[in-house]
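In full, the data:

***
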Amino acid sequence: MKKIVSAFLALMLVVLPAMPVYAADTASSKEEAVYGILKTDGSVDSIYVVNSFRSGNVKDFGKYTKLQNLTNGEKLSQNGEEITIHTSAEKLYYQGTLETKELPWSTAIQYSLDGKEISGTELAGKNGALQIKIKVTKNPSVNPTFFNNYALQIGVKLDTNRCDNIVTANATVAQAGSDKQLNYTVLPGNEADITVTANVKDFEMEAITINGIKLSMNMSIDNAGMQDQVNQLVDAIKQLDTGAGDLSGGAARLSDGMKQYIAGLKAFSDGLSKLNSGVGELNNGALSLKDGLSELTKQNSSLMNGALAIQQSAFAAVNSQLAGTGLPVITPENYKTLLGGNPDFAEALAQLEGAVQFTQGLKGYTEGVAQLKEGAAGLADGTTQLKASVSTLATSAQELYNGGAEINKAISKLRDGLSSYKKGTAELRGKTANLSTDMTEQINDIMDSISGNGDGVTSFVSEKNENVTAVQFVLKTTAVEKPEPAAPVKTEPAKKSFWQKLLALFGIK
């Protein structure tokens, strides 16, 4: 027994230095590339992971059904979830097929041809109006860090020799030869709902690809500079609001003043209307006076002739009475000289004086009537012109009032519009008071939507793998292809028996 124990210890001393030593439960640093093989409807067929390590002692964890060293022939050791190897390779790659068929994203792909749903396998070689709907949603049964932090690029490649009138939305489209590549970018934390339509003939399509990576963007944003500009904008909005208030107040005062002006125009227009009516009456009176005086002057000649006849009769009677007195013939020119100063002729003098004065008075009257006629004619002409001028002035005043009323309406609308504008600037001022803080939060939200929520890199395979530096996902559906035609079966000629060969030599079948 002592010899057996001694031999065993000696063997252990020889073997132990050659065995790799692993730190207890400490996974090695590595990178993971997760490859998902999807069916044409997007369901998972299988998932395998390519893990990469530096040389030396390697310890990894994962529930794999199959392992394969992709670098060299060194053997991987699997003990439950623990995989170990001591590698001399500078970089070791090994592939493991996962037990699970759950990915962070659930993918559903539906095909419709001429409005009827069809499977991807049945679609190959078909003609018609094709619709492809791709939905990628969050898988709640998988660690959400991948959905929340990984961006997806979904690629659909269509052969333009088989597809035309290709229509889709929110895609980056690239032409590569006869192929049209449709690329869709889905930011972290978002789901995808994609629709592609095309007219197809003898349809085939390469695999739809979905690549998932954790975005790492080194974007430098000058927050201080942006905030300074935003503060300038906020100050400008304050000034705009203050100016709007002043403008609105000025418009209100202008409207009040315009109302007073319109009231004055109204009074002026009403006064001119009354003046026009009064001038019309005055003109009618002047015309009536002119006409009356015209009729009166027509009697002037008869009146003067009658007065002269009366005067002549008076002088004839006096001359007859004084015929024997030796006096010369008494006339209107000498009667005062001949009869004046003699009391005996006082009665005759008075008679002749009355006749002469009557004639002269009547002459003055007829001349006055003639002058009044001319004055009345001038007055009638003046009142006619005044009537026309006042009428024009009244019309102009009414038009001025109407124009002022329209201006007042416009000013009222301006006042109301500026009042609404002031409310808008006040609301804008209130909503932009915290613009700088809000902008910073929005920028952070946008950056989060692009780069995720900042979670560190996590192993997709096992939470025991704590030293994972990178994880990426490469998902690929089965291509829509027509089956290859079956190769013709080569039939070996039937072997002839000895007797058949013998008969053939003689040409006997």
